[in-house]
Amino acid sequence: MTDQEQTKPSTPAGGTDPLRGSRTSTTWVAVIGLVVLLLLLVIFIGQNTQDVQVAFFGWSGQAPLAVALLIAATSGMIVAVIAGALRILQLRRRVRRER
Q1: Can you say how many angstroms the Cα of residue 42 is from the centroid of all Cα atoms in its chain?
Q2: How far apart are CA 21 and CA 65, in angstroms?
Q3: CA 99 vs CA 1, 74, 87, 94, 96: distances in Å
Q4: pTM of this prediction?
């Protein structure tokens, strides 16, 4: 046998790879990604604790910079999710009508 044949993983008779990706492995990758994101978020909040003046539609007050930025980012994400969901519903209705 050559070196390449020795290092090549063997596949069962069916031809499918037993180490292929699965839902469980995808979930673990997502969990690890979320943990890293959470760690970065905690570092961001810890480094941006100074108070800033915030004004919005007549309401004004002081809030930590990190909180103000997180609220603004979360609000933007909510608007994007709503717009995306409405577009998906619109496309689904169109597909149903064409069937």
Answers
A1: 17
A2: 41
A3: 57, 38, 19, 9, 5
A4: 0.55
What is the residue whose two structure tokens read 């180490």? 19
Average pLDDT value for residue range 51-78: 88
Model confidence at 88, pLDDT cuts 50, 70, 90, reads: very high
User: What is the DSSP code string of 38-62?
Assistant: HHHHHHHHHH---EEEEEETTEEEE
Residue with tokens 């070196």: 3
Is the CB of residue 51 less than 8 Å from the CB of residue 62?
A: yes
Q: What span, in angstroms and rounded, lies between the C-alpha atoms of 84 and 89?
A: 9
pLDDT of 84: 92
